[in-house]
From TrEMBL:
GO terms for molecular function: ATP hydrolysis activity; exonuclease activity. Keywords: Coiled coil, Exonuclease, Hydrolase, Nuclease. Pfam families: AAA_23 (PF13476). This is DNA repair exonuclease SbcCD ATPase subunit. The lineage of its organism: Bacteria, Pseudomonadati, Pseudomonadota, Alphaproteobacteria, Hyphomicrobiales.
Length: 646
């Protein structure tokens, strides 16, 4: 990854500047301050140049200037810094504004397409855009300040850093942080894949349960089918035996009926009936005679009763006449004088008349009774005479009754035979129907078989999916392991440590003639032999102080420079987002001439290997450096940039 073009407008001391950052080799930044008579180069704006890069990328300078502080005093507004960043094939432009007439205070991120079109990647807020910028650069402000830009008075002090800070810097500088994100993504992916696999396994479990349930149903249904068939077979066998028995019984009854001579008996009864029918005329006549006898008897009784009534009336009339006769000589009820015979004569005559009539009637009735009695005797005799001449059918009736009983018995057998024959017929029909009947449970089995076929296919399909999902989970687990602290991360740190040591040793050996040694540790083995992270830089000095604390100022600076340059090498050589840029602002401070020469040698070498190294120094380095950028502050405060190759 390269920072290519840096453009500055109204930033700190600089009114306007533009220069290339990439593939420059070793460049010396110098300053001329015409605005301040007390200074030659101090305050010219040298440090403002790399600070502009720092600010455009992170919104803060190495000396922690931010907000309106960064606006050039002379302009008072319109601050704008942009830098182009090339990441493989992609070119981005980061633009930061402060009180800018167009850009206001905004941070913009553009993606410059090869065809000239611009894709604006600016997000809804500066915070979000900044996050995107950080992702593109792949280095935080801390890493930037510790390995890329060793700012004035901000020389990265790696040997004195805490384990935590050093860990952060080394991990980020080596690109392990990216793995952290990958580790998180891998774990997320593993969770998802496990979820998918478990869901499929659960689905298979459910399907298997369903299958088992259907199979159990099928077994019980099969039992029902078998049971039904057994029942049918038993019913057919027992029915057939029963039928056979019926047929035999019918045959036996046929024989019984034949032996009983039904026809002969029926003929005998008929014969008796004929005979009885023949005497029925006589019975009719007898009945008529009996009726006449009854009539005659009734006439006699009626006549006798009338005569008796007349006799009674005669007696009562005689009493009445005696009562009339008795009234003679008795006082009258009305006048009291005695009643004479003459006075009762009329009544007596009348009563006597009635009496006579009664006598006449009685005589007539008596005669009539006599005639009725004669007629009764006559008809009774006639009836008795006829009855005596009547045919005697009692024997025939008795015979008929006997024959009829026998016939009834036979008929009973016939009915029994008929019923039995019907029963046999019904039974034969039932056996036929039962034999032809479809087993009612078979349909259920067909249905279950169909269902089982579908479920088996589903299980088969899901099992294949499970196999694939398990494969995916295995891969995801492997990926998690690879990105886990014990995986590739440890491996990288394992590789990084010797590299840092080798680079630091290289720089220190030049700077100190191998007297001072600085050793980086990232991973240490604990008592159990397990790797444990432990970030530190151990310093040893053969000829002097035995720890970093006891080193001289110049020696400390040599260690600091060596460690920072080694870290820069790490950033420049990492697999993703390598940054081939180093800016050192007065890092040569406190070095003597010998130290300075050695440093310049290192920086030159570094510039050859790593693209661009910018160095700001008050020391006269023109003998060692061929490219010079001079920032010149004019009397009025405006700045100009002069680039020269010597
Ligand atoms: N907002 C600002 N506007 C204009 N000038 C500013 C602003 N902030 C700081 N300055 C001044 O800009 C000048 C340049 O600072 P800078 O740090 O770039 O100088 P320098 O060339 O690195 O000097 P030195 O050699 O002393 O480190 C200084 O005089 C400083 O006071
Ligand atoms: Mg400075």
């Amino acid at each position: 990854m390269k920072f290519t073009l840096l453009k500055i407008e109204n930033f700190l001391a600089i009114t306007e500047a533009e220069f290339r950052l990439h593939d420059r080799g070793l460049v010396l930044i110098q300053g001329v301050n015409k605005a301040d008579t007390s200074a030659d180069s101090n305050g010219a704006g040298k440090s403002s140049l790399p600070d502009a890069l720092c600010w455009v990328l992170y919104g803060i300078t190495a000396r922690d200037a931010s907000g309106d502080e960064v606006i050039n005093d002379r302009a008072g507004k319109g601050t704008k810094v942009s830098v182009d960043v090339e990441d493989d094939e992609d070119i981005y432009r980061v633009i930061r504004h402060r009180k800018h007439p167009k850009g206001k205070n905004a941070l913009h991120l553009l993606h410059l397409q090869k065809d000239g079109t611009i894709n604006d990647l600016t997000q809804g807020t500066d915070k979000l855009t900044q996050a995107k910028v950080n992702t593109i650069i792949g280095a935080s402000h801390d890493v930037f300040k510790s390995s890329i830009y060793a700012a004035q008075e901000q020389m990265p002090d790696l040997p004195k850093m805490t384990d935590k800070m050093l860990k952060m810097l080394i991990e980020e500088a080596s690109g392990v942080t990216v793995l952290e994100e990958s580790y998180k993504l891998a774990r997320d992916k593993l969770t998802t894949e496990r979820g998918t696999r478990d869901a499929i396994a659960q689905q298979i479990e459910k399907l298997t349960e369903k299958k088992d349930w259907h199979e159990r149903n099928k077994t019980s249904l099969q039992d029902q089918i078998d049971g039904w068939e057994e029942n049918r077979s038993e019913s057919v066998t027992s029915g057939t035996a029963e039928l056979k028995q019926h047929v035999e019984d019918v045959k036996a009854l046929d024989e019984e009926i034949a032996a009983a001579g039904h026809a002969v008996l029926a003929a005998a009864v008929k014969e008796c009936d004929d005979k009885i029918l023949a005497v029925s005329e006589e019975q009719k006549q007898l009945m008529q005679l009996n009726q006449k006898v009854a009539q005659a008897t009734s006439t006699v009784n009626l006549t006798r009763m009338e005569a008796k009534q007349t006799q009674d009336a005669h007696a009562r009339q005689k009493g009445k006449i005696a009562a009339i006769d008795h009234r003679v000589g008795c006082p009258c009820d009305e006048c009291g004088r005695e009643i004479t015979e003459a006075e009762i004569e009329a009544s007596r005559v009348s009563a006597m008349g009635v009496l006579k009539t009664l006598v006449d009637n009685f005589t007539t009735q008596k005669n009539a009774l006599e005639d009725a009695r004669k007629a009764l005797t006559l008809i009774t005799d006639k009836r008795d005479a006829f009855e005596a001449t009547m045919t005697d059918i009692s024997a025939v009736s008795a015979l008929r009754a006997a024959k009829q009983r026998e016939l009834d018995a036979v008929n009973e057998v016939i009915v029994k035979r008929r019923n039995l024959a019907q029963k046999a017929k019904d039974l034969a029909e039932a056996i036929k129907t039962l034999k032809a009947q479809e087993n009612p449970h078979r349909l259920g089995i067909t249905k279950i078989d169909r269902e089982l076929l579908t479920i088996s296919a589903e299980i088969c399909k899901a099992s294949e999916q499970l196999r694939l999902a398990e494969g995916t989970v295995d891969i995801a687990e492997t990926v998690v392991k690879v990105f886990s602290p014990s995986g590739v991360r440890a491996h990288i740190l394992d590789e990084v440590t010797p590299y840092l040591n080798q680079q630091t040793a290289k720089y220190l050996s030049i700077m100190s003639d191998s007297n001072i040694e600085a050793t980086w540790t990232t991973l240490v083995k604990n008592a159990k032999g397990e790797l444990r992270e432990n970030f530190a830089i151990e310093v040893a000095n053969e000829k002097g102080g035995k720890s970093f604390r006891l080193l001289s100022g110049g020696e400390k600076r040599k260690v600091r420079i060596s460690a920072a340059l080694a870290l820069q090498d790490l950033v420049a050589t990492r697999a993703r987002k390598p940054i081939e840029l180093f800016i050192g602002d007065e890092i040569d401070d406190a070095l003597d001439a010998a130290g300075l020469e050695r440093l310049t040698q290192i920086l030159e070498e570094k510039a050859t290997e790593r693209g661009s190294v910018f160095i700001i120094s008050h020391n006269s380095l023109r003998d060692w450096v061929s490219q010079i950028i001079t920032i010149q502050k004019e009397v009025g405060g405006e700045t100009t940039l002069i680039e020269e190759t010597v």
